[in-house]
C-alpha cells in the first residue's frame, strides 16, 4: 500500500479517495421468529423492496454490488459493495433495515475497507530490474518481450485493483487477515526488499490458479479491526480450498500471516437468494 505525502494544504476535503473505491462486505441472517409474524402481503412487499435495493442496475445502487448465499451458520446471505462514496454503500444497508423485511434482518458480520494498489506490485522499471536479477540479459529479445508484455498488462492490473469488475464465477470466499507483529516474526520490521521478495513468492503460487481463481485484496488499516480483506472468486468451490491450502506454505503466509473467520458463499441474484432462504 503506497503512502501519499501528508501535505494538508494540497488535499481536497472529500469522502472520495484520490484513487480507488470504498468497499464493504456485510452478512445478514433472517430472524425466523419475526418472519413468522409477517403476513404474506408484507413478506411479498418486503421481498420486492429487497430486490429493488439489491438491483445492481438500480438508480441508487453503488458502482458494484454482489449478492451471495452463505454456506453454514454464520449468515444466510452476504453482500459485497463498492463505490467511491462510502455513504452510498452504507445506504444499501440502511435501506434494507428500513424495508418491511428490516425487522427480520440482523447483520452478523461486516468488514469495511478500501481498494489499494499494493506497494509490492512492481512498476515497469522495477519489473525490469527484477528480470535482470533473475538472470535475464537486459536488452535481449526475451527481456524486451517480457517488459513489453508487462507494460501492456500494467494499466489493466492497476484498474482491476482499484476499480475492479466482479467475476461472474459462482463460488466466492472472504476472510480478513493481519501481518504478525510477534517477536522475531514482525512483518513490519522486515526490510522492504525482503518483504517484496516474500510477496513475489506468494504471488507466484497464486498465479498457478490463473483462470480458476480471481483475487482482490482491500485494505482495512484504519477502517476496521483487521488490516486486509481477501476476496476470492472461483470457477468451482474446490479451487478455493486448493489455493488457500497451497498458499499457506509460502513464508509470507506460513510465518507472518494471521487469519480471521472465513465466509464462503455462492453468487446469485436477490430473487434466487430469497427463494433459497424460503422467504418467497
Task: Explain what the structure shows.
The chain has 280 residues and is of the alpha+beta class. It has a domain at 15-115: Apc35880, domain 1 (Alpha-Beta Plaits, 2-Layer Sandwich). The chain has nine helices and eleven strands. The chain has helices at residues 32-36, 40-53, 86-98, 124-133, 141-162, 192-207, 237-247, 251-254, 270-276; strands at 22-30, 64-70, 77-83, 105-115, 171-179, 181-182, 185-186, 213-219, 228-234, 257-259, 263-268. Helix 4 (124-133) packs across helix 5. The longest helix is centred in the middle third of the chain and has 22 residues, at 141-162. It is elongated. It starts with 21 loop residues before the first strand and ends with a helix. The mean pLDDT is 93.
Please supply descriptive tags for the structure shown above:
eight-stranded antiparallel barrel, elongated, 280 residues, 9 helices, two-stranded antiparallel sheet, alpha+beta, Alpha-Beta Plaits
How are strands sequenced across the largest beta sheet? Answer: 1-3-2-11-5-9-8-4
Rg from alpha-carbon coordinates: 21 Å
H/E element sequence: EHHEEHEHHEEEHEEHHEEH
Q: Distance between the terminal alpha carbons, to the nearest Å?
A: 44 Å
- Nearest-integer average pLDDT: 93
Strand content: 25-35%
**Number of distinct beta strands:** 11
| Unreliable runs | none
Q: What overall form do the CA principal axes indicate?
A: elongated
- Tell me about the largest β-sheet: 8 strands, antiparallel, barrel
Count of alpha and pi helical runs: 9
Task: Write the CATH homologous superfamily of the domain at 15-115.
Answer: Apc35880, domain 1
Per the CATH scheme, the topology name of the domain at 15-115 is Alpha-Beta Plaits
Structural class: alpha+beta
CATH class group of the domain at 15-115 = Alpha Beta
Percentage of residues in helical conformation: 25-40%
